[in-house]
Each structure stands twice: as C-alpha cells, then as structure tokens.
Design goal:
The radius of gyration is 19 Å and the shape is globular. It is 36% helix and 20% strand. The mean pLDDT is 93. The chain has a single domain, classed as Rossmann fold, CATH 3.40.50. Helix 8 links the parallel strand 9 and strand 10. The termini are far apart. The chain is an alpha/beta fold. The chain is built from nine helices and ten strands. Strands 2-3-6-4-7-8-9-10 form an eight-stranded mixed sheet, sandwiched between helices.
Length: 261
Amino acid sequence: MKLILILLIIYISICVLLFIIQEHLLFFPDKMNKDAAFKFDQKFEDLYITTKDGVRLNGVLFKSNKPQGIIFYLHGNGASVESWGEIATKYTSQHFDCFILDYRGYGKSEGKITSERQLHEDVQFVFDEIKARYQYNKIIVLGYSLGTALAAKLASVNDVDMLILQAPYYSMTDIMNDHYHIIPPFILRYKLETFRYVKNCRMPVAIFHGTSDKLINYQSSVRLKELLKPSDTLILLKDQGHNEMTYNKEYIDALNKILNK
C-alpha cells in the first residue's frame, strides 16, 4: 500500500507539473533580436501589429507581382518567420501575397503564450489589421500543424475564399491520447479542436497530409474529411513525413491547380 501511495503521489505531481508548464511542451519558438533584419530573396515588408493589450506582434508580408490575393499563413509550433519565410516563394510564384505571423514569443514578437483564447484572439486581431491595410480579391487562410486549428477557427468565423490545412490534427487532446495516453485529458489547457471548427467552414477546404507523418497520424485528416462538404478535398501525400511538405512536388502541383482554379 505504501508503494502504491508513493506511485500515486508521483503520478499526481507529474500531472500538476504538466498542467503548469505545458506551454514549454507545446511551443518551441526561435527568438530574434527586435533590431534584427530579415534577409529574404524576394520582396517583403516587415510588419508590427500592436494588440489590444499592448503586445507588438511581428509578421512578414511577402509580395508577389500583380497579386490575385493573399495567403494568411499560420505556421507550426517551432522556429519563427525567419525560417518559415523560406516557403513563401511557393505562394508568391502563384501570384499571391503571403503573410506569415509569428505568435507571441516567436521571432521578434513580444510577450508569451498563456492561453488558447489568447492565441485565437491574436490571430483574429492581426487578420483584421491585414484586411484593413490591404485590399485583395481573394483571401486564403492556410495553417500548418499547430496552425491548423487556429486557421480553421479563423476561417469558420470570417469571410474568406478558401481554407488549406497541412498536416492537421483532429484536436490537441487527440494527439495527447495517441502519444501520452496515461496522462488524463482534463489537464490539457490547449484543446485546439480542429474538428469543431471545420464543421462550420462554408468556403472550400483542402487538406494535405503525409502518409508517413509520425507526429500527427494522417488518419486525423481522414476523420476531418468526414466532417467536410462532399466537394472539399483530402490529398494524402505518399511517403511524406511531417516536415517539409511545402516542397513536396505532389503538394505543389495540387496547390497550383487549387490556386488557379
């Protein structure tokens, strides 16, 4: 009985610790000096947008020639715009401007992430600011990995032309159950329920997922597709892992068809 009690105390202590420090387990930002200059091989504008609580968020607007629209890009849980910006040419070459936001604590963005609600509010606020500053014929919201739930929520409550999801998860709870099933779901403060948001997306939705993704199983996308309209698209990329999807030829070919449709 004493051993069981000790193990129970250890288990409860671990759960409490995970509840407190989960931001450190979910988000892996690369931080940059605020005075650092980006060096990209294409036209871009370094933007700062101040939130209602006074935090300056940084993002980069990559510019194409004669843009048909803009892609509002929400990146994954690691790195920053400094490295994510390298993918922008795949979209600007298709005559779309591409805005990539760094979340709080990422890159040159101030502050730190403290709640899921804060994340959604920041994304919505920046989206509104970009729409107000620039006029585009088409607006596409695109999320990769961590950014997929944020993108789905944003698209579900705004008038946008398309939602694109790369390697989406069904929910963060679903991922935790896959990888850490001994941890009780109720301690997770970031539910990020992609499945809940996609059901309310009226615009066309395209989902891409690699069949060799070890972080987020592609079956999450299969389950999400079941919640979408019959006209929406799921493309499974054979042998593609979780990273580097943007450079996958099959992805690029399908993306070009979608953007030019």
